[in-house]
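Budget justification aside, the reviewers requested a transparent look at the raw inputs and outputs of the sequence design task funded under Objective 1. We therefore reproduce one unedited record. The lines immediately below are the structure tokens for a 284-residue chain.
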């Protein structure tokens, strides 16, 4: 069944309120649309954990830098609505930017430490935009839980921090990265890739797997693990944005993987002009 399409904040808040008042648990899956199996896995898990799942489809302008791909971000509202329907999503909030940021809008959410490195350092203002829109979505829907993918690992930590710091009372659920059969992390931006670049993009997941194997065989120092990822990027001719070994929750850099301290290896790289990210837990 096609989901109910909500265009305004007022009707969305009223719809969500009616779900909560009926005693049903509400799950929210925020997205920017052009949906793939990664998004659908969040929706299906939402339905396992709650009675009703809602989603949002909104290409949020405040999280894009001035030279980034806001205007050409892939869109397919028709296709997305039918995928949402098949995944059991009951309602989709699909507002225009002016509904979310009306004239006079002036309030932003800045999550400090965990936004600083990695994508936060390479995309100034990005996490301020993400934190702001996610806070707004959580305030509009007031869901019992909200689901996000580990593919955007730093984003997930930013959202966990804002939920905790602002006492929003929403359970934040992180879900594993869904991959193509050859290992490429699913991402709406994969649609930008030519056939050759699609092959070259495999260097990200291949590099992370190489580092994981090294770690399993006893190599625990950051330079060696990071180096394993870099070698794959270089061999495929990709331009590194960053490769870093970090503590899995604070995201502070680590020089070594230590048993008992969960660590994560994160990579961002340009495949031609397309910037892709990926990450994996390491050691532990
Ligand atoms: N491969 C994936 N597996 C699991 N979750 C995912 C995956 N890709 C995206 N998500 C999650 O879906 C939610 C919406 O993400 P978004 O709409 O930005 O999709 P995306 O594919 O990450 O897009 P982009 O290519 O712009 O990064 C986020 O919580 C994101 O982490
Ligand atoms: C969480 C999010 C929907 C906020 O715009 C976006 O950053 C995304 O799709 O990952
Ligand atoms: N999935 C993260 C959204 C972004 O790159 O803007």
């Amino acid at each position: 069944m096609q989901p109910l399409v909500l265009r305004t904040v007022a009707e969305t808040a009223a719809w969500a309120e009616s779900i909560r008042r009926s005693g049903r648990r509400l799950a929210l899956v925020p997205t920017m649309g052009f949906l793939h199996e990664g998004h659908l896995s969040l929706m299906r898990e939402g339905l396992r954990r709650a009675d009703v799942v809602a989603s949002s489809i909104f290409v949020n302008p405040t999280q894009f830098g001035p030279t980034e791909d806001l205007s050409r971000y892939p869109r397919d509202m028709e296709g997305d609505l039918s995928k949402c329907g098949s995944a059991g999503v009951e309602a989709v909030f699909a507002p225009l930017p002016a509904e979310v940021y009306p004239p006079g809008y002036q309030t932003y959410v800045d999550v400090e430490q965990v936004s600083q490195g990695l994508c936060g350092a390479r995309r100034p203002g990005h996490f301020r935009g993400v934190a702001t829109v996610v806070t707004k979505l959580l305030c509009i829907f007031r869901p019992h839980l909200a689901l996000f993918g580990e593919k955007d690992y730093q984003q997930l930590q930013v959202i966990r921090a804002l939920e905790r710091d602002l006492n929003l009372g929403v359970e934040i659920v992180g879900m594993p990265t869904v991959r193509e059969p050859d290992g490429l992390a699913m991402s709406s931006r994969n649609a930008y890739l030519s056939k050759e670049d699609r092959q070259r993009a495999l260097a990200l997941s291949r590099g992370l797997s190489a580092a994981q194997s090294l770690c399993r065989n006893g190599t625990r120092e950051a330079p060696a693990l990071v180096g394993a990822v870099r070698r794959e990027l270089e061999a495929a001719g990709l331009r590194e944005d960053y490769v870093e070994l970090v503590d899995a929750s604070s995201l502070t850099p680590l020089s070594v993987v230590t048993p008992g301290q969960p660590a994560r290896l994160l990579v961002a790289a340009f495949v031609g002009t397309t910037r892709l990210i990926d990450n994996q837990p390491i050691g532990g």
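The beta strands are 4-6, 26-31, 52-57, 89-93, 145-149, 171-175, 239-247, 263-271, 274-282. The pocket of adenosine-5'-triphosphate (ligand 1) is lined by residues 31-32, 38-39, 41-42, 148-149, 151-152, 175, 177-178, 185-189 (CB under 6 Å). Computational costs for records of this kind are itemized in the attached budget.
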